[in-house]
Specification:
Blueprint (H helix, E strand, L loop, with lengths): L1 E7 L5 H18 L10 H4 L1 E7 L2 E9 L8 E8 L8 H17 L3 E7 L3 H7 L1 E3 L4 E3 L2 E9 L5
Parallel strand pairs: 4-5
Antiparallel strand pairs: 1-2, 2-3, 3-4, 5-8, 6-8, 7-8
Length: about 150
């Protein structure tokens, strides 16, 4: 069974912050070999969503208010432990993040910088490509938008 949690950065306990950053390091540094710093000033303004299974943090993302990364609110640092992928965790995280941002921030659109190999996955959630491919941290990405008006 999975438990989902949402808190602003300022409300995270030291243990929660450690769990979230450790997971991001496992996925981005160890697995994907990203060499740029993970922590940034956006962390301080973000709201975190994370998933636990039997006390272990297995997935996380951050929600960033509009005007910080893009004119739109955004979702970033989406990561799930390899052993927990293909179980619907990421889809649930994204859906809960979108619902939270609509309810709490009254957003009508959300931006993501998606790794190119995941484009069709994010399209299945309702995002659409709005940019050419670009490199971010040495990995190919495309900017994508989700618009409330486009959802059925």
């Amino acid at each position: 069974m999975f438990s989902f949690h949402i808190k602003p950065f300022s409300a995270l306990t030291v243990r929660e912050l450690h769990a979230v950053t450790s997971l991001r390091e496992q996925v981005f540094y160890l697995e994907q070999r990203v060499t740029t710093l993970d922590a940034d000033a956006k962390d301080l303004l973000s709201v975190y969503l994370w998933v636990e299974s039997e006390g272990e943090t297995v997935g996380t993302l951050r929600m960033i208010p509009r005007g910080v990364s893009y004119p739109e609110a955004s979702i970033g640092r989406v990561s799930v432990l390899p052993s927990f992928r293909h179980r619907g965790i990421c889809r649930q995280m994204m859906q809960r993040a979108i619902e939270y941002m609509e309810r709490e921030w009254n957003v009508e659109s959300i931006c993501i910088s998606a790794q190119s190999y995941l484009i069709s996955y994010y399209e299945s959630i309702g995002f659409h490509v709005v940019s050419d491919e670009y490199l971010e941290a040495g990995i190919r990405h495309r900017k994508m938008l989700w618009n409330a008006a486009d959802q059925g």
